[in-house]
Amino acid sequence: MKPQRMLHVLAMSIAAVSIAAPKKEPMNVLFLAVDDLKPMLGCYGNERVKSPHIDRLADGGTVFLNNHCQWPVCGPSRASIASGLMPEETGVMGFKAMRGKLTNLVTLPEHFRNQGYETAATGKINDPRCVGTLNPKNPTARTKDGRDIDDPASWSIPYVHASGIYNSPTKRSCESPDLPDDQFSDGAVCNEGLALLEQLAQGDKPFFLGIGFYKPHVPWYAPKKYWDLYERTEFPLEEFQELPKGGSLGAWKKGTEVHGYPDTPNAYPSPETGEMVYPRIPDDKQRELIHSYYACVSFIDAQVGRILAKLDELGLADNTIIVLWGDHGYHLGDHGQWGKHTLMEGATRSPLIIKAPQLGEQVPETRSPSGHIDMYRTLCELTRLEVPKQPKSKKAKDGHTVKGVSLVPVMTGEQKSVRKGILTHKGGYAFRTERYRYIEFVKGGKVLARDLYDYETDPKETVNLADEKKYAAIVKELAQAMRESPEAAGCYELMGK
């Protein structure tokens, strides 16, 4: 933790939080999404990364240190934040159309639009394979035009697709071309975001603006100047590159997202079993991959800086709620994994920073569990909008309750925590509390396997503790707590529905 944030935390613990009187005018919302961003930022305690602009945003907001996605893949994760529903409720458990099962779904920006807000977006807010025109013969199938039109019902100003012109000649996993920012998709997204911000500032309505960045999604391409911020030799490799002792194999993905590029080892079938084997990536190549990821983070940080500067320039900073979040985490070599798709800390934990000027001085950081599923209720409370009902089916216009809880009491210091833990689903169910990760694999109401990891004694997740007698009471407690969590009603297999 940076010294100034440490002092801020100490001051907040001594004195009561000062909450400014709510402003009467409607608050704008600036929603910044970053693809595949793990909480590898200065405001999350990483002293190596160069992320000054995001850190500046964090200095005036609340950093959620224990935030987790509801499905560690782009499409389902983004659908959960857009809908306030769990993946089993929307049917988006992969690259499925978000409105295929629930045609009359009211997305978060659509709700703001319905309440008189101007809404606009560019870049990757929703996953393009999950939005767009539905296939009438197979409504839940992945869509084909989402990259161009996104989700039309969400945006009062038609969605703006932005892309750069850089096309890799090598198709390697990572590159550092010496080109300006706007030659890359995220530089183009930033330019379009700035143009939309100026357009919205000239209007007479409050706005909801979504700007979504594509990096640090693999392949890791960023302008050379961001690579030059780092010395490759300074990057340590992950110490533990094996799977946990006694861990459930279902919690892990077979394979990674970097094997198979021309500059990384190819997977091959095992002569004994026929299953694919993913060789360990050589140490030098691991450092290059880590270096490239850091460079991409700094590239995105620079774009965020441009947007924050424009917000100040337009005089909108005091009347705009800013949310910055990553859609899920990412393994950078821990447990031998390079990607997301697992039920473990590296894949589910992602950054979440919320700055709401109308609250006055906010709690600077919290270890209270939180999730993307909490965003719908949080933004509704911050803007004083009622929370809508979601449809239960194509015919029933309501019936699903928006899941999650508002995080505002944590931001103001009224409550230390608003939940015991947060659920993530992918094959099994992971429940993350302040100290533990508890995982269950359930089928037909029967628990097939359990995992338990204690982050106080085993932060590297090296041993599954679920079968140890001294943890029996903890397992029982967490099994009950996960079923009582605010989003559990939307986890059908877990609840035996």
Automatic annotation (TrEMBL):
Signal sequence range: 1-20
Sorted UniProt keywords: Calcium, Hydrolase, Metal-binding, Signal
InterPro entries: Alkaline_phosphatase_core_sf (IPR017850), IDS (IPR035874), Sulfatase_N (IPR000917)
Stretch list, region Disordered: 128-148
Gene Ontology MF annotations: iduronate-2-sulfatase activity; metal ion binding
One GO location term (cellular component): cytoplasm
Domain of life: Bacteria
Cofactor(s) listed: Ca(2+)
Annotated Sulfatase N-terminal domain residues: 28-383
Family per record: Belongs to the sulfatase family.
Record protein name field: Choline-sulfatase
Source lineage: Bacteria, Pseudomonadati, Kiritimatiellota, Kiritimatiellia, Kiritimatiellales
